[in-house]
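As a warm-up, study this chain.
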Amino acid sequence: MTARTRLQLRTLTVIVAMACLTTPLFNWLTTGEPESALQGVLDGFIIATTVGGYLIFVRDGVLRGWMRRWRFTPSLLLNSAVLATIFLVGRGLGQVISAGDPAEFAESFRDDHIVYAALFFVGLSVILIFVVQMNRMIGPNVLRYFVMGSYHRPRDENRVFLFLDLEGSTHLAEELGSSRYYALLRRFVDDLTAPVLEACGQIYQYAGDEVLVTWSEEDALEDGNCVRCYFDILDAIDAAAPAYQRDFGTLPRVRAGVHGGRVIAGELGDIKQEIVYVGDALNVTARLEDYAKREKLGLVVSDELLARLELPPGLVAEPRGHIEVRGRRAGLAVSHVSRARTAPVLGAGGRRAASP
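Now compare it with the structure written out below.
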């Protein structure tokens, strides 16, 4: 099971649990019959599982590319029609199962309680869609952090950062034009998401043609996740090479820097809030990314982090000496991490490129 699937199933579980807890209470309050709570559990389970499955696995899964082409109003109408159908069919099935009589399916549409149930479903659907959409907009863990108030008060954390840069973005934008370049950037971000999830990382920010990934120190060091992630991204791009060549006539090439350290994490902003990390670790990671671009290297890692990290099999570190880092008196020792020469040193597209 992939990390994306585990994340989707976790979201679905939350949705179903919320429906199974609230629907029985709603039935009891609106009918005055305690036994209707059991029917509420059954209806809530059937409808929430189907609605959540559609939103997570269908709308935002297999049909994601197709749904992206729809404007807001047509998309809203289509999804509303699908959800209404799911509600009516799911409620009817719940009645059939509890009564053991197929005739109850038609009776469920004439039930006086259906009006109250429909209003309740609309309200619950709005909440479910909000949760799913917010998970996509700000990240699944970030929404949980806000709800739980994890960073309401700033706190110290040890974190590791991976800064990824799409090489030659200015040239690509001129060559492809704004619209096609944006499509390339979107494809690139989509393709790197699965490797980040599989490496237990979180996408912290998108900054133009840069992607900032972060881990807790424990997750970053486990199995060399913070380093392995970069090479898994190269492999994902390589696997999609025919599609990139067909649609854009080029392949994305990626430079990156990795470093970790102590940061302050907290909620920042007034009319627009974010969970932000502040500290020297981010400044150093940005410098490593700049160094990788300047020296035409693939992945540059600080020796401070390498000393605590066991490289995954097949990867080697080549010392590059010390580089100057703004704000630090002493230079920073860094290394270039690449695939061992006994195995192919692959850049994007499987080429023996300067970004192994």
